[in-house]
Amino acid sequence: MMVRALLAVALLQGVPSSPVLAPEPAPGPYPFQVGEAFEYVGKLGMLTLGTASMSVVKLDTIRGYEAFVLRFQLQASTFVFKMDDVMHSWARTSDMVSLRFYQEFDEDGKLRRRYYDIFADSGFYRERERKEQKPTVAEPLDDAAFFYFIRTTPLEVGKTYSINRYFQQDKNPVTIQVVKREKCDLPGNQETTCLVLHPVINADRNGMFAPRADARIWLTDDARRIPVQIRSKLGFGTVTLKIKTMTIPGQPAATGSAH
Question: Under 8 Å CB-to-CB from 12, ≥6 apart: which residues?
Answer without folding.
Answer: 177, 179, 198
